[in-house]
Amino acid sequence: MTCATPLARPRPHRRVTIHAVAEDRHTRNDGRPDGRDTRWSGHRAERRDQVLTAALTVIGREGTTVSVAAIGAEAGMPRSVVYRIFRSREDLDEQIRARITDDLMTALSPALDPKGTIREAIELAAATYVGWVALHPHLHRFLGTGSPGRPAAGSRAVAGTRTAVALHLARLLDTYAERFLDGEEAPPGFNLNLAFGMVGLVDGVVNQWAAHPESRSSLDDLTHFLSDALWGLLAGVTPRLGIKLDPDQPIGPVPEPPGPGTP
């Protein structure tokens, strides 16, 4: 009598998903990143940079109403490939705004390290910002409006840049206040209020100037107005600290922060 050999129970089928494949690609058996994945990440970063560079070129040339297809054509890739690199048009727009603000901060950097007299430092900062806006009107407009149907209100890149400039200015004001107050500090929040007030003043005036070319002043008049307004704000509030400023007094270099072990 022979016994029938029992049939082997089928093994459960392992469902392989895109995420599982991606996870397998990320690491090797020893837990280190897979070289192929590292190369792909570098390639993706290069293509992202290529698209953003193309976007700034097209927007600067044609205005804010550019399509993803036009940006892709400038970058040498189809629209579908652009959407493999960015999650959505909103994501692309925010990355474009971040790139624009990076370029703007590079241009502003020398003006954020004041030299000469107080008047000269203020005029340099105003002229640098106004000059950038006049040279790149479409890029400046994109920061405020975004692409059609996708307003830029609430952009973290724009708000973050504005805040970063104000905080940098507040630190400068803290440093100079200590110098003019013989080592004492300004009241808490005083220089923050002043810094954000100065940045808000410039932002509001320049946005209005850029949005109404049919009725705006000349570039020189705008620069002089901002310089006078900033000096007026600075001179108007510093007497509360017991400081009387002269616009033609040397501002002096920004003191270096003390190094380790410095008393």
Give the gist of this structure:
The protein is an all-alpha fold. The protein is built from 10 helices and no strands. It has 2 domains: 38-86, Homeodomain-like (Arc Repressor Mutant, subunit A, Orthogonal Bundle), CATH 1.10.10.60; 97-245, Tetracycline Repressor, domain 2 (Orthogonal Bundle), CATH 1.10.357.
Largest sheet data: none
Q: Could you say which structural class the secondary elements and strand pairing correspond to?
A: mainly alpha
CATH homologous superfamily grouping of the largest domain: Tetracycline Repressor, domain 2
Mean pLDDT score: 83
Number of helices: 10
Portion of residues within helices: 55-70%
- Per CATH, what is the topology of the largest domain? Tetracycline Repressor, domain 2
Distance between the termini: 99 Å
Topology as a string of helices (H) and strands (E): HHHHHHHHHH
Low-confidence stretches: 1-8, 10-27, 257-263
Strand content: under 5%
Number of strands: 0
> For this structure, what is the CATH class of the largest domain?
Mainly Alpha
Architecture (CATH level 2) name of the largest domain? Orthogonal Bundle
Give a written overview of the molecule.
With about 260 residues, the protein is mainly alpha-helical. It is built from ten helices and no strands. Helix 5 packs parallel to helix 8 and helix 9 runs antiparallel to helix 10. The radius of gyration is 27 Å and the shape is elongated.
